[in-house]
Queue: 2 jobs
Job 1
Amino acid sequence: MTSPKKLGLQTVVFKNPPVIIASACIAGPKEAQGPLGHTFDKTIDDLYYNESTWEKAEQKIFQETLELAIYKSGLEIEKIDYLLAGDLTNQIIAANFTARNIGIPFLGLYGACSTMYEGLALASMLIDGGYAEYVLVGASSHYATAERQFRFPIEQGVQRAMSAQWTVTGAGAMLLAAQGAGPRITHATVGKVIDFGEGDASDMGAAMAPAAADTLLKHLSDTGRTLEFYNLIATGDLGKYGRELVVRLAEQQGVKPSHTYQDCGVLIFAEEQDAHAGGSGCACSAVVTCGYILNEMNRGRIKKFLGIGTGALLSPCSCQQGETIPGIAHAVAIEM
Amino acid sequence: MTSPKKLGLQTVVFKNPPVIIASACIAGPKEAQGPLGHTFDKTIDDLYYNESTWEKAEQKIFQETLELAIYKSGLEIEKIDYLLAGDLTNQIIAANFTARNIGIPFLGLYGACSTMYEGLALASMLIDGGYAEYVLVGASSHYATAERQFRFPIEQGVQRAMSAQWTVTGAGAMLLAAQGAGPRITHATVGKVIDFGEGDASDMGAAMAPAAADTLLKHLSDTGRTLEFYNLIATGDLGKYGRELVVRLAEQQGVKPSHTYQDCGVLIFAEEQDAHAGGSGCACSAVVTCGYILNEMNRGRIKKFLGIGTGALLSPCSCQQGETIPGIAHAVAIEM
């Protein structure tokens, strides 16, 4: 058997690239007001979404998103082999309780805000390898569950640093299949954990940028592709300062990103929305990819896309104990 | 291409069953005193393990365990394609920081105490599918990091319920390869999240037992195997009450487990060690499998083993918000 992966490289090339047969995204009120508001399948008005707690609201958003992706595909739920999902809450309860209600064999992931892309990479291997016909991949985050867990009670009104980002409320889901029509996942580059010693939890873009640059450069050298090969390259949630750092780190290696390199955290909020450095959270790359980017691909306006999910692998406990913030980034090439 | 997975079934049959070329386990002081103390590669005397915090001690144990598995294999670390790992700490910081120091492309998992088996199932698909030559799988837990995160500060000396379990301190790791000598992973059954409405966080065995029984019965019906096919079947960390529940649930379906069905949480501590219902935690199934069970297999005393990693998908937050405790279980068949 010829291995689909060349030894010594970090990038997998799929022989039968899995197809994204359906996708769905639901986002929150602030996201609805942003420049991509019209690209989401549904937006909610209230962070509680008629639930008694924010955590239950996040789970409800997540579940509705997965159900919408399944509905759009027209597939019977019993045909879906696996659900790969995760989120930012401790012990990924949003994903766990959603998986309980959905009832598909479940593999829980934690890649911080890179979770959607970690799931896409793994799901593509499961389908291309023949272990599944259909895999559902999803990730969620919620501004209020993340704020109180990672930072301060939002009622406290703590002033946020200009380098801080705004956790996106929402969830995204993609249904991947061995066959069908739609954009295909052709390559996946699984990242290493990279830590340049950044320790400021109010500047996660800087903490994740080195991992994003590392994975981007590995992807290009493994595949022999150039930046220009892609109509769009988007990192997950580095925000504007993190994006600038990736540009600088890439330039140091002789690769010069242009306007075709964007960041989902920069795209999702407008300057006047006071989100400071931009959006973050598992849902940031998930809703931007499942909304704006896949829409553009399905309309033929983007033919070759490289998404790079980015995650900051900290916890409040690790920060309190003086640790720096390691980053990770997983890249997935999606092509029409 | 013939799919290695039959549609509609939950069990994957590997065409080229991945080989466990090396394994390692390190355990804590209480585990050292238990009946399996002699089967661990190393035991530590002190829960701090010369670190300033328990969390850093857990990470050190995890890292040493992974390094030991790599050392035993004689493999250069650069040849390992992926690290699949997770633990119980919020945002899986034990795994994240270990992955940072180890430097292998990393896929973070969260399956609560089923994480080791979730990792084995996924790693086997990545190898059998041709996406990797070598995958390192690991999981850790630590009595003191788990107690303060999930329950009470241990200094408080809260009286524990008799149904409560004792989180195992330690870590286990297996290095899987496409070729080589050793036990092979022949099948994997990925479980669904099952919730019978149990809500007592002091009785997690009861919460996980329905998922364990469901996965066990699915595995048997998918493969056409009987309980007697296996020399040993072991669930991860149900403890004695959870194990009894699995026996009863299986009997209701016409399957009668005998003494060949054991639970790692029952095996790891002796009655007089005051661990109440038994051991728990990601490390429970990890150290028992990587120590006792693989030792017995390598000596030829167990030829066919079915391990069923079990996880309780709760968080302190979900319990406080009145949720019940969903369970999950993933089964992996290991054969000589």
Job 2
Amino acid sequence: MSEAAGFGKHELGTAVDEAWLDEHELEIVRGRVPMVYVEAVPVRLDEVGRVTHVGLLLRAMADATISRAIVSGRVLWGETVREALQRHLDKDLGPSAFARVPAAPAPFTVVEYMPDRARTGYHDPRQHAVSLAYLVPVEGECHPSQEALEFVWISSEEAAGSAVSAEMTGGQDRIVRLALAHAGQLP
Amino acid sequence: MSEAAGFGKHELGTAVDEAWLDEHELEIVRGRVPMVYVEAVPVRLDEVGRVTHVGLLLRAMADATISRAIVSGRVLWGETVREALQRHLDKDLGPSAFARVPAAPAPFTVVEYMPDRARTGYHDPRQHAVSLAYLVPVEGECHPSQEALEFVWISSEEAAGSAVSAEMTGGQDRIVRLALAHAGQLP
Amino acid sequence: MSEAAGFGKHELGTAVDEAWLDEHELEIVRGRVPMVYVEAVPVRLDEVGRVTHVGLLLRAMADATISRAIVSGRVLWGETVREALQRHLDKDLGPSAFARVPAAPAPFTVVEYMPDRARTGYHDPRQHAVSLAYLVPVEGECHPSQEALEFVWISSEEAAGSAVSAEMTGGQDRIVRLALAHAGQLP
Amino acid sequence: MSEAAGFGKHELGTAVDEAWLDEHELEIVRGRVPMVYVEAVPVRLDEVGRVTHVGLLLRAMADATISRAIVSGRVLWGETVREALQRHLDKDLGPSAFARVPAAPAPFTVVEYMPDRARTGYHDPRQHAVSLAYLVPVEGECHPSQEALEFVWISSEEAAGSAVSAEMTGGQDRIVRLALAHAGQLP
């Protein structure tokens, strides 16, 4: 594994190193294999567990739009899916969100983003990503951090509607509807 | 619907009336149709959502044994599955358990108790019951109330083992293993 | 269990006896406990398992309308959920449907029909029914039998649309959308 | 993206090109990002959909053992999860297996293989792989092809037992047990 291979030298330990894969390397790898992603639809539940609200971020997306978005991000080498979920939830919703990563590892759906829009209906201009989508109850206060501009709670009826859909890109509006359906709360 | 029909007079409102179906009536109905039950496997999760412990009650069972048991009970006429789950969790684990009824209505498995042991492997001498089984994360303190004698947290490895299985009846040990498998934590 | 109890004499064996509960008895029981139902959304899959079409019956419904409907029916005393599913599929789709009852017992959703429309959004004027809903791939030819007037295959896009919804009652249009969402095929 | 980047020249189209990523390139990418895999547990069902048998291959594994194994393989760039599942099923079970890729995209569990055995309990010395595991009913005849030496149907009781587990590596015996639990057939 030399520099000629296009990758800088680095040590690979069991610890996850967010920084080890630089942008150039990432771009190369993205053209070769599907990337593993996780997706979280933050939800508020009532006292018997029914979804009442969906949490949406406002952020700059991969397709250069400013859009409503769910929590989404890459799983790193050596990182478990649960750790990745928790990391992205912490990063996007802040430290006092008290997001509950689900006990079951099976996602409610699998989303396949492709550069070709026609392939699956989910679109990412940068890559082919296979994303595991989870419904994540959030009990605390959300304070969008880093790249997100805003975070809002929207009622489940509104979240499934066309006005909200129009503000989302890449097919994430469909993920929200599938999440609501999984929770039995799709109108 | 007269008294000759074997049922006492009563008003059926939208409110759930725990008392309306007396023991005699219940016995009759139990011989005619399958009863709807809910089952909850109480679990403790670590900081990334992995099941670490399973909560078990010690109680007098329908088969006249004193056994380890999960939370289980009937869904009443007019009561939703979520309400029944919450009611039985409150009753069995006490008011400060903070049990989290899951957002998704689909159970992780469906358990079919029958008087005939050979039919499904799940046994209830009193009735044919179709029970929806849920994994329920519990965050607070559990204080067994009413009929339960004791409540203990057992590690997920132990809960899947034969020593604990031997203390459970009716097939509930198998429900615990299916719950752990659903959570990816079956050894 | 005498005749005075309002129920005729009969032997309860392990065999399921479709006829044992007469209409009068059924009406009484229906007012006392939730009934167990199964629901099947028949689907056609393409060569890689994607849902392409949803199968709908045209039939007289409990609310006295003639509506599009999915396969639905009661689980009898002593009958397993799988047996009930197969029996209702055979009855509604005919003997050459080759419906594939799923390997996993967990339904994709649980539907709670109540006489009170406002309670869950699912409505049955006759009873409180807790129905386990399954997605059932069908590979053969469907010939509606008994009470169904017609059976048609509708594309998954159409099945999720408002024109088809308007022809369904009791909330079954929502079950179809939840089924499509479960299959990742909700638009 | 030059040759200096360590990758040969090639066209990336929508068509999946099994050959485009050579062994050297694959080795490099494997050290940088988790690989996306699919896993299929082939099963025989009885007439009401209960799992009666599990299908196991005998093959040379990544850890250099000859072991019993389930169907498993990589998802290629541009290939959908369904296409990958179908491709690996065809390759491993032969053209007349009539394997039924499930309608729902959600796997029954997510398996995380790591070079470090202690991390998740699933082990692959070559890579970090995130594998989506599906239960796949098989209706035809299986003829192991390519790298598999043998294919056998084993009863679900046996498949969950310790004798079969001892012949499997990497944690695949646990995947079989989780699959049986998902189907309600774990003893």
